[in-house]
Amino acid sequence: MSNLLYMILTLLALILCTANVYAMHSYRIPTRKLLYIFAAVTLICIAANACIIIPFGREVFQSVMIFTVAAPYFVIFLLISTDKISQVFFNFWYWVNIYAVIANGVKLINDITFRSSTFEDLVVIAFLFAHLLLYNKYFKSFHRRILETPNINWWVFSLIPLFFEILIVTTHKAIPAPDGFTRNYAVLLVVFLLMIV
Questions:
Q1: Model's pTM, two decimal places?
Q2: Rounded-to-integer distance, Cα 158 and Cα 110, Å
Q3: Beta bridge partners of residue 81, listed in sequence order
Q4: For residues 4 and 53, is the Cβ–Cβ distance under 8 A?
Q5: Other beta carbons within 10 Å of 62
Q6: CA trace torsion 58, 59, 63, 64 (10° rounding)
Q7: What is the spatial distance between Cα 51 and Cα 58, in angstroms, rounded to a whole number?
Q8: How far is residue 18's CA from residue 22's CA, in Å, rounded to a whole number?
Q9: 160-192 pLDDT, tens digit each
Q10: Selection from 42, 119, 108 nearest residue 73 by Cα
Q11: Would you say 87 and 109 are in contact if contact means Cβ atoms under 8 Å apart?
C-alpha cells in the first residue's frame, strides 16, 4: 500500500479515535472553539507524522505513534476537559484498551482472510465508526454517571486499563505467534476476557 493511501486511512482513523475520546469527556470551552483546537492539533499531527511515514514507512510510525499522536491529544484533553486529571487519565487508558481490542480483532480477521494492510485499515475504520455510534447511543450516559460518582479514587481505578495495556504489549513482545498468524490470539483472548470481567 502506498504511503499516501496509508496516511489518508491513518487520518480517518485518527479523526474517529479523537471523536470517540471526545465523546467521553465534558468541556469548559464552547464547541466551536473546540473544533478549531482539534483541527489545529490534527494538522500539526498530520504534518509531523507525514515526516515520519514518508521517509521511514509504516512500521517506524507505529513504533512512535504513542508520542506523535496519543500524547498531543492527551495533553489537549487535559487542558480543555472539566473532568479531573485522574479521570482524563482513566479515559485515555480505557480508550487505548478499546482500540487494542478493535485493532487485534481486526488483525485476526485479516490474518484469516485477505492478509491486506489496506483491508485491515478499512475494517479498523469501520469498527471505530461503529463504536462511536454505539457508545453515543447506548453507553455514554452510563459512562458519564460513573465518572461523576463521588468517592472514587480515579488514580487507582485508572491503573486497571493501564495494567491491561502493559499486558497486551508484553503479550505481543514475549509470546510468539503460531505459524501463519501475526499475534498469539489465544493468549490475547484470555487477556481481553479478563479485561471485560
A1: 0.91
A2: 31
A3: 27
A4: no
A5: 12
A6: -30
A7: 12
A8: 6
A9: 999 999 999 898 889 999 998 999 999 999 999
A10: 42
A11: no
Angle at 194 between CA 182 and CA 73, to 5 degrees: 70
Could you write out the DSSP letters of every residue in 93-120?
Answer: HHHHHHHHHHHHHHHHHHHHTT--HHHH
Contact by Cβ (8 Å): 110, 177? no
Cβ pair 93, 165 in contact under 8 A: yes
Radius of gyration of the chain (CA): 17
Judged by phi (left if over 0) then psi (alpha if -120 to 50, else beta), residue 152 lies in: beta
**Whole-number Å distance between alpha carbons of 118 and 124:** 10
The type of residue at 187 is: V
- What one-letter code names the amino acid at 116? S
CA 142 – CA 137 distance, rounded (Å): 10
71-79 contacts at long range (C-beta below 8 A, 24 or more positions apart): 72/41, 72/44, 72/45, 73/18, 73/21, 73/41, 73/45, 76/37, 76/38, 76/41, 77/21, 77/25
pLDDT in tens, 32-71: 999 899 989 988 988 898 899 889 988 888 889 888 999 9
Q: Rounded to an integer, what distance in angstroms lies between the CA atom of residue 118 and that of residue 16?
A: 17
Q: Residue 113 burial by CB count (10 A; 0-12/13-18/19+): exposed, middle or buried? A: exposed
Q: Is the CB of residue 127 less than 8 Å from the CB of residue 19?
A: no
The secondary element (H helix, E strand) that includes residue 36 is helix 31-56
